[in-house]
Amino acid sequence: MTVFKTYLKVLNKSKMPVILFTVILIFFAGFNMKTSENSTNFVASKPDILIVNEDKEEGITKNLINYIKKNSEIIEIENNEEKINDALFYRDVNYIIYIPENYRNDFINGENPEIKIKSTGDYQSSFAEMLLEKYIKTANIYREFIRNEDELIEKINETISRETDVEIVSKLDTDNLSKASFYYNFLNYSILAGSVYVICLILSSFKEEKIVKRTVISSMRYKDFNRKLLLSNCLFAVVLWMFYVLISFILVGNIMFTMNGFMYIVNSFIFTICSVTIAFLVGNTIASKNAINGIVNVIALGSSFLCRSICTYGMATR
User: Fold this and answer.
1) What single-letter DSSP state applies at residue 145?
2) % of the chain residues with pLDDT over 70
3) How far is CA 307 from CA 185, 243, 268, 313, 314, in A?
């Protein structure tokens, strides 16, 4: 009990860092929850498309151009290949469609004229490609059975104008789940920084010369002393973790009572155990109190930014 009472006395003097990290956590979590929007809303965007038409704007050619204009933002650029390439490079246009000369007659005659394209390769250009492929595939199917151009255009327009109403039905509260995700992502920094700072500060206090001498001449074995000190650190970390989890129930709400919320809590508890072991290792290695601030920045901030970069890179390379 002597070690534990002494631990509590030192901890009481080191409470300001915990309060500081808690305030930072609540501030950023609360700010994010105020500015977050419901992610279930979908708004379609139109790609920027440039059409270079070398054919007469009549018949099937005109119908194709009208279809592209209806479903995209048409960009007007001088018919100069250098300027067109510059517009593509600077993302002024996402997709370029080259309609070849005599396209209308060749298509009607079943010669499958080639439409050349250039794209930026992003999601907007992929959407533009889907629009073009949808029209061409529909036109090719009807051309096999219909030879009259007016009737062919009518059937194409009738097919591609059909729309499907999409209703998003989700039992998962994605809005609150994103709030919980942000909170627990930032919680990892608060737990790691708080554990390393406080535990290192307490261990350095126990390493003061007069404390070490009293420990050496006491009847307590060195292993028992370290074991009690480790258990005290674990108790502090668990109480800190429980306090942060309680705050998550207040800020995030009912999502924490679901399986997803339970997984966040379990994951944070495992991380807390890892934080204690890291803090105990650093605290037994570093004796200087002046070095603790630098150690916290290197370990807590460094690992947080590093893990964030690795996750982002992993998602980008999938």
Assistant:
1) T
2) 80
3) 11, 24, 15, 10, 10
The model scores a pTM over 0.70? no
Q: How far apart are CA 43 and CA 35, in angstroms?
A: 19
List pLDDT tens digits, range 272-287.
998 888 888 888 787 6
User: What SS3 class is residue 87?
Assistant: helix
Cβ atoms of residues 3 and 211 within 8 Å: no
Structural contact between residues 300 and 193, judged by C-beta atoms closer than 8 angstroms = yes
Region of poorest pLDDT, from 143-152, 175-184, 297-306: 297-306
What are the distances in angstroms from CA 219 to CA 215, 216, 224, 225? Answer: 8, 8, 10, 10
Closest CA to 111 of 119, 123, 96, 101: 101
For residue 284, give every residue at least 6 positions away whose Cβ sits within 8 Å of its Cβ, in sequence order, or none: 203
Structure tokens at 60: 């099937």
Nearest-CA neighbor of 125 among 45, 47, 44, 43? 47
Collect all residues with Cβ–Cβ distance below 8 Å to 229 and sequence separation of at least 6: 3, 7, 203, 206
For the chain, count helices (H), then strands (E).
Answer: 13, 4
| Among the listed residues 239, 241, 240, 265, the one whose alpha carbon sits nearest the alpha carbon of residue 252 | 265
Residues 6 or more apart in contact with residue 243 via CB below 8 angstroms = 22
d(CA 251, CA 179): 9
Contact 253, 270 (CB under 8 A): no
Instruction: Concatenate the DSSP letters of all residues of 3-30 into one string.
Output: HHHHHHHHHHHTHHHHHHHHHHHHHHHH
Residues 308, 302: Cα–Cα separation, whole Å? 10
128-177: pLDDT as tens digits: 999 999 999 999 999 988 888 899 999 999 998 877 666 655 555 566 67
A 10 A CB-CB count for 80 gives 9
